[in-house]
Specification:
Layout (H helix, E strand, L loop, with lengths): L9 H55 L6 H7 L7 E6 L2 E4 L11 H8 L4 E7 L2 E10 L4 E8 L1 H51 L13 H51 L6 H32 L8 E3 H12 L5 E4 L6 E3 L2 H19 L2 E9 L2 E8 L20 H4 L9 H11 L3 E6 L5 E8 L4
Helix pairs in contact: 1-4, 5-6, 6-10, 7-8, 8-10
InterPro entries: HAMP_dom (IPR003660), HATPase_C_sf (IPR036890), HATPase_dom (IPR003594), His_kinase_dom (IPR005467), HisK_dim/P_dom (IPR003661), HisK_dim/P_sf (IPR036097), Sig_transdc_His_kin-like_C (IPR004358), TCS_sensor_his_kinase (IPR050428)
Pfam families: HAMP, HATPase_c, HisKA
Main location: membrane
């Protein structure tokens, strides 16, 4: 499963979904909480400031009602609470409790409203911060009373509240991601078990099954998976037994037929020329048939025991030398690392058969091997067989390892073989935890490589 921009693992997507969900929920809660808290605090501050302003206006009006009192003198004696400043308009003149506060701090709209005989409020921004201006007409004293209350403390409180809510949202997002990580492990764990079991089954361990579960959501999956593996194992066992039985049943009549042909071969001179040609043809076909039966039996053994027992150290360098010495024939250039560096763990008989099949393949299709190399590469030991034949086309280099796969020339009957030799090589390599592949040889033909895990030194 892939996204458009970049691939993401299922677990990462689950964690991301939980984190984004927690972020969205916390963002909505933070925005709502802040808006409600800001509105409430502003309303409370405005109500308190308005009540205080009316109180201060009444006090000033009562003082001005005394004969001979002056606005400026009484304003100097007035001490508003909360650090507020007072501005008064009387008979077109402006008075203030501080020199840096005056008519310029009172919005014109509020002045018009108070001049018309109605109280009002307005919020203004000043160099020292936001302020709330409350305007009150005092008709008894013939003045317009304005009180300028600072909102700096409220603004600081709101900033602190925003920071706390933001930290809470970040914490909630992190908690959502952590919960998503925990949930993703619980969700993905059954899939990892299925993937691990499938990987081991693909490697040949057909006795692997998923453990029983009490989760009702997984019961059907576990039961279906185990049933599928049972059916697959039964089918492979049945096919393997069938191939083995057929191969064994054919051995007896084949042996009798080979014996009869050998008897005829001993009296070849008594046959006519056409009879001798027929006898040669039969001997060749019987040899090919016998080799095919041997290959089928070997494949049946490999299928019956796909994971080769690794209980024997084998030096591939020494093994290749033995195979070449036993084969005889034209000299083959052999380059090999020291025997102790080419040791692998495996079944010597099957490894010998795989090396023999590589050399037989070179004999049949390329006139023999041109060079053989055995060397250790990092943690692996490789056997390379080069030939100077026609090579293998790029599109055929994977197919040649399939069972009964033969090239176009072989399909026309110009080359011997049943197409099982290289299949046995690949099955043997896979059973030992390695691999086999075909590439281009520096001699112009094909290069077949058998790679196996090297033994620990």
């Amino acid at each position: 499963m892939r996204l458009a921009l970049a691939p993401r693992r299922l677990r990462a997507r689950i964690v991301l979904a939980f984190a984004v969900g927690a972020l969205l929920v916390s963002a909505v809660l933070v925005a709502t909480t802040f808006a409600l808290a800001r509105s409430y605090l502003l309303d409370q501050r405005e109500s308190a400031a308005t009540r205080q302003a009316f109180t201060d206006a009444n006090v000033l009006a009562s003082r001005l009602s005394t004969a001979g009192s002056e606005v400026g003198d009484e304003l100097d004696d007035l001490v508003p609470s909360g650090g507020a400043d007072v501005v008064v308009r009387s008979d077109g003149a402006w008075y203030s409790s501080r020199l840096d506060v005056g008519a310029r701090d009172v919005p014109g709209a509020l002045q018009e409203l108070v001049a018309a005989g109605s109280p009002g409020t307005a919020r203004v921004d000043t160099p020292t911060g936001p302020h709330l201006v409350i305007g009150i007409p005092v008709a008894a004293a013939g003045i317009e009373f304005y009180e300028v209350a600072p909102l700096v403390e409220l603004q600081t409180a709101l900033r602190t509240l925003a920071a706390v809510l933001g930290a809470g949202a970040a914490t909630a997002t992190l908690a959502g991601a952590l919960f998503g990580a925990w949930a993703s492990r619980r969700v993905v764990q059954p899939l990892e078990q299925v993937a691990g079991a499938a990987t081991r089954i693909a490697g040949g361990e057909l006795d692997i099954r998923l453990p029983p579960t009490e989760d009702p959501d997984l019961l059907a999956i576990v039961a279906s998976f185990n049933s599928m593996v049972d059916a697959l194992a039964s089918r492979i066992e049945r096919d393997t037994r069938f191939v083995g039985d057929v191969s064994h049943e054919l051995r007896s009549p084949l042996t009798s037929l080979v014996t009869s042909v050998e008897v005829l071969g001993a009296r070849r001179e008594e046959l006519s020329e056409r009879g001798q040609q027929a006898l040669t043809l039969i001997q060749g076909e019987l040899g090919r048939f016998r080799r095919m039966l041997d290959d089928l039996l070997e494949l049946a053994r490999v299928d019956g025991d796909p994971v080769t027992a690794r209980d024997e150290p084998v030096s591939l360098g020494a093994l290749v030398r033995e195979v070449l010495a036993h084969r005889g024939g034209p000299e083959v250039v052999l380059s090999a690392d020291p025997d102790e560096e080419t040791v692998v763990q495996g079944d010597k008989n099957r490894l010998e058969r795989a090396v023999t099949n590589l050399l037989d393949n070179a004999d049949r299709h390329a006139g023999g091997a041109a060079a053989v190399l055995v060397e250790r590469r990092e943690g692996s030991v490789v056997v390379i067989v080069d030939d100077a034949g026609p090579g293998v086309p790029l599109v055929e280099r994977e197919r040649v390892f399939e069972r009964f796969a033969r090239g176009p020339r072989a399909a026309r009957g110009s080359l011997p073989g049943a197409g099982l030799g290289l299949a046995i090589v690949e099955e043997t390599a896979t059973g030992h935890g390695g691999g086999a592949w075909c590439s281009e040889s520096p001699f112009g033909g094909a290069r077949f490589t058998l790679s196996l895990p090297g033994a620990s030194q």
